[in-house]
Amino acid sequence: MRRIPLSLLLASSLMLGAAGSARADGDAAHGKTLFSRCSTCHTVTNQNKVGPTLAGVVGRKAGTVEGARYSKALPASGIVWDDQNLDSFLTDPAKLVPGTTMMVKLPNAQDRADIIAYLKTIPAP
Ligand code: HEC
After folding, report:
1. Nearest alpha carbon, ligand 1 atom 31
2. DSSP assignment of 1-61, as one string?
3. Which of 8, 48, 53, 98 has its CA 20 to 30 A from that of 74?
4. Which CATH number belongs to the domain containing residue 45 in this structure?
């Protein structure tokens, strides 16, 4: 499995910032607060709950946390999580991955950017 180094992700998000992308404006501190909407089912440690740990999720292949309970659809999706596909997944999970058991939608684009920025700060356990 290929992992994207965090430094590379940070560098590319800085470049996106320079290009004026709204998505790169994510506020990780606010994202941490918003994570309360996820923490019923997800941790950012090495623990799985109803959903897989989200520590190190950016750059990870979808559906590959050991011991996590996944639908058939998510591991079969072939997705490697990055800003863009996380943004569409969080907009409407079942639209990006029909058959996924992740149901939570974040309709607000800034909230999505903030949560993604927060998730990027958490390395794999
Ligand atoms: C009610 C429980 C629940 C909540 C709340 C929830 N999720 Fe999930 N999430 C899941 C489940 C279950 C899966 C596994 C889906 C599958 O296998 O199809 C998942 C999968 C994911 C994945 C894919 C992980 C991987 O290893 O491929 C991401 C990313 C994700 N959730 C992000 C979030 C974020 C961000 C939030 C908060 C805004 C959130 N989830 C809230 C249950 C939840």
Report:
1. 102
2. -----HHHHHHHHHHHHHTT-GGGG--HHHHHHHGGGTTTTB-SSS-BSSS---TT-TTSB
3. 8
4. 1.10.760.10
